[in-house]
Amino acid sequence: MSIRKLIGIVKVMFLIVLTSCGDEAKKVTVYPAPDGVALSEDYNVTVDGQSVPVYKTKIPPDKPIPRLNHSRSEYGYASLASFDMAEEAVELSITYPVAIEEAKVLPSSLGITPRIEGDRLVFNVTKPGNLTIEINGDWHESLHVFVNPMETDVPDPDDPNVIYFGSGLHEVSHVNVKDSTTVYLAGGAYLKCLSDPEEEDIDRLIGHNKTPPTFLLEGKGITLRGRGIIDQSAIHKKERRYTIFSQYSDNVKLEGVTILDPSHWTVPIQASGNIHVDNLKIIGWRDNSDGVDISNSRDVLVENCFMRTLDDAVVIKSFEGKGEVRNIHTRKCVVWNELAHSFSIGAEVQEDVSDVLFEDCDVIHDVGRETALRVYHCDDALISDVTFENIRVEEARRLISCWIGKTRWTESEERGNIRNVTFKDIKAISAPIDTTLTGFQDGPDWKPYIIRDHASMELTGFDKNHTIEGVIFDNVQLDGEIVSADQVTINEFVKDVAFH
């Protein structure tokens, strides 16, 4: 056995012993911020008396409905903090620059009522989850607190199948990840993403995009995980660079990391199978800064994630010739959507999509141009067997939509069909009325529409051969009342709609 290998084994054994000894009494793990990373001055956070670093990242400007082409010179800042906790409850304390008059902790479904002590906010956290704290009515530049479960099975940095980023500041341009490889971002690791100076074989890597992703996953048995942060803010606004792109892959797990300022789709999953996305945290503000885009893939589970995105949060698409979409499950996620959709299928759907379930999720804000829960069909495939269940929407202007038509994203000559969509156990609150707002209707070009005094709902087929059939509203509640047929706009190309 080589000396190097022996030293590596001793290091791992020491870490295991050290971790096991510490974890017997450890309730929380806090990771230090690397030198050279600017921190937020708006909030001071401690957990069980330990100081927690508070980072900051750009968010869209504070405008009623931000446009997709909003000015890049206008923005705000959100703050974020993160730590790991065991099964025992911990006390979270947040200090604000001025006296706190009111505060709320989202999602409301957690039932957390904070205690106000002057400029300090205190409450207990009993389990991992993703929290948003809004103080004195400031919903825009709020504080996000990501509470992770304790990490287990930390990989060996000397393992040849591990790409290891330890705590500290790293510069990364483009990383190819192949079979049986683990990419690990340790707590306290901060990856600054840069442009790739060589950009070899770009067309193969991305297709319609012209720059490679920060991480390209192609292969079997790939994992990317940890408690570190990936920051794409240094990527030029015109570069449109994916953050983590999985294509032609099988048995992939993405877990735990935080992604800030993605320059394009954050986590696209294409032509892949058996994918597990768990506890990712995404805050994006640029054009097309989607959260998780699932296209032409099968057997995908997205759970326990937080997404604050300008564009779609979790969206399903299918491009011609790349295969159908089947068995896609999203659950236990918290979403804040600034412009487009929280949970949706479309717009691009050129291969069949079936067996899709969105369940047990919280939408804490959705007041943009589009619809919170949507099947949005602009091409020629069949979309079938879709369920939105047990979803809590705390603020929406447009709540539910199933729609077939032509838009600026249409690729197919023919239109498609939608079959068997269920909305079950949905509880939603309409966004406050503001008559100065305008949104944009569907179609080849966006046109103004009038904001209603309640969140709108629509079922719109295209023609007698391209219809929506078999839609169920089962215990859908809007503003405390069960939704009835007269609250939903339904055209003549929709059949078999039931309200329970």
From TrEMBL:
UniProt keyword terms in alphabetical order: Carbohydrate metabolism, Glycoprotein, Glycosidase, Hydrolase, Polysaccharide degradation, Repeat
Protein's recorded name: Endo-polygalacturonase
InterPro entries: Glyco_hydro_28, Pectin_lyas_fold, Pectin_lyase_fold/virulence
Record-linked Gene3D superfamilies: Single-stranded right-handed beta-helix, Pectin lyase-like
Pfam families according to UniProt: Glyco_hydro_28 (PF00295)
Keyword field contains Transport: no
Function field: Pectinolytic enzyme involved in the degradation of xylogalacturonan (xga), a galacturonan backbone heavily substituted with xylose, and which is one important component of the hairy regions of pectin. Activity requires a galacturonic acid backbone substituted with xylose.
GO molecular function terms noted in the UniProt entry: polygalacturonase activity
GO biological process: polysaccharide catabolic process
Family of the protein in this entry: Belongs to the glycosyl hydrolase 28 family.
SUPFAM superfamilies: Pectin lyase-like (SSF51126)
Domain of life, per lineage: Bacteria
